[in-house]
Amino acid sequence: MNDCIVIIPTYNEIENIESIIRSVLSQHKPFHVLIVDDNSPDHTADKVKLLQQEFGGRLFLEIRKKKSGLGTAYVHGFKWALAKKYDFVFEMDADFSHNPNDLEKLYHACHFGNADLAIGSRYVTGVNVVNWPLSRVLMSYFASVYVRMITGMKIHDATAGFVCYKREVLEKIKVDNIRFVGYAFQIEMKYRTFCQKFKITEVPIIFTDRTKGVSKMSNSIIIEAVFGVISLRIKKLFNTL
């Protein structure tokens, strides 16, 4: 069986879904893809079902009843991937903000390097973001600075959503314990990995904002991240993380 699964959560991504699936599955490395769709009203899941006829055995679909947040979608995907015995589990957006050509860089960092978690980092070599307004770049960049100050993690892109985990990491951190859903979910995953003393490596990428579809960012997600970091640090201090 293939050792790599790319988890892509979707909600109303009909404009991007076929292109992103074809791009991932056309990589030199024969990745598998799991779409976790939150019952998209635009029929994203129906398009995936059609593509499954073409990519049988490499493209999988899990449909949830309603939109329940990015974090819970990934946890659903993690549990599915662990049950299927994949060795390398990837997170990736559906909107091409993450370049499928960079998947192999993350894989190499974990498989041939010594990383347990490889992060596709926007900030490890400067600011590598295209088409974002300056206000959002600053918010994202300083969010990672804030996370480093509070948690002690030496990670430049703590909110990154383009990553590769070795299965041992997901097994050790017990994904059922993950509680946050947005930016804070990405921070929590990295912090739990860090607290378990796994090796974390940042791989430089160029992040390009979506050109199709609608961003899922909201003020509540930002607020969750700000206060979630403090909550994680307190839990760690009292050994309740």
At the third CATH level, what is the topology name? Answer: Spore Coat Polysaccharide Biosynthesis Protein SpsA, Chain A
User: What is the topology, as strand order, of the major beta sheet?
Assistant: 3-2-1-4-7-5-8
The biggest beta sheet is recorded as: 7 strands, mixed
Question: Number of helix segments?
Answer: 8
CATH class: Alpha Beta
- How far is the first residue's CA from the last residue's CA? 34 Å
Describe this protein's structure.
This protein is α/β, with parallel strands linked by helices. It has one domain: Spore Coat Polysaccharide Biosynthesis Protein SpsA, Chain A. The protein has helices at residues 17-25, 44-52, 70-83, 103-111, 134-151, 167-173, 183-195, 219-237, and strands at residues 4-10, 32-37, 59-63, 88-91, 117-121, 129-130, 163-166, 200-204, 207-208. Helix 1 (17-25) links the parallel strand 1 and strand 2 (32-37). Helix 5 (134-151) packs parallel to helix 8 and helix 7 packs parallel to helix 8. One of its GO terms (molecular function) is dolichyl-phosphate beta-D-mannosyltransferase activity. InterPro entries: DPM1-like (IPR039528), Glyco_trans_2-like (IPR001173), Nucleotide-diphossugar_trans (IPR029044).
